[in-house]
Request: fold
Amino acid sequence: MSAPSFAAPLPLGAPRRAWLTDLPVLLVAAFWGASYLAAKGITTTHTVVAVLVLRFAVVLPVLVAAGWTRLRALTAAQWRGAGTLGLILGGIFLLETYGVVHTSATNAGLIISLTMIFTPLAEAAVTGVRPTRAFLTAAALSVTGVVLLTQGGGFTAPSTGDLLMLLAALARTVHVLAMSRIKAVRTADSLSLTTVQLGSAVAVFAVLAAFPGTGASPWATALDFGPREWAGLLFLSVFCTLFAFFVQMWAVRRTSPSRVSLLLGTEPLWAAAAGIALAGDRPGALGLAGAALVLAGTAWGRRAADGADRPGRAREADRPGRAREADR
Reply:
């Protein structure tokens, strides 16, 4: 679906309707930005796996109930593809959660945003299409920003948490590429695909929780939780997972995927704001400069990648039947 032309006159009230769609998506980005701080507040090194089991066990029954009919319609190939993606997703959540325990919420949110740079670079490596000079410059800017961001009072080795978040950004890139290259999942219903992925991830967490040495059990962790911890867990489950998924499904049918992606791309801003305002993160002069470079680089890189891909999308739209398919 192509973006509307700004040269064309808009119907009276259209800007208001656009904002009514944009605000819930922006709220999702804010929730995601705050999720690093929430996860850090309720998780320790010994409860990472248990918290992940509890977080997704809360929302999985709702997703199964909402999409039971469509789940039953999935083919065996779609189940296998979605299950594979779920295993990757489980690795992403493990890296992110262990990472945020060992670094600041500000660093976590900004480092993970490098996925927006890594994904087009990985796609270029796979397809053999060289990225534009503007995109490569934006990528270098972002990487420089991360280097500065992870240096508090001076140049030191990045923390374990910083490195884990960097690995999580790379794993997110693998997840995106796998989703685009596993043919079976391309035609899968998005609700069913998400449900199977989360179910596979929860299965991974449950298996890990059964092994000694992986920390506290989900049951023991749940019993130890007080009102503050349960509030944080429900925030992660209900608002950062369930609400976020349904808002994305709702918004992408009322506006363009590019607009939704752009609004969700503000997540690092909210992560930095939550870390500084609520957790007392103090990145210092170098850290603030690095954060600015990360935000500028990822925003520039997103625009550069989108601009380079636009001619290809235009050619796709010219193919017979393509326009009707895009409007479903």
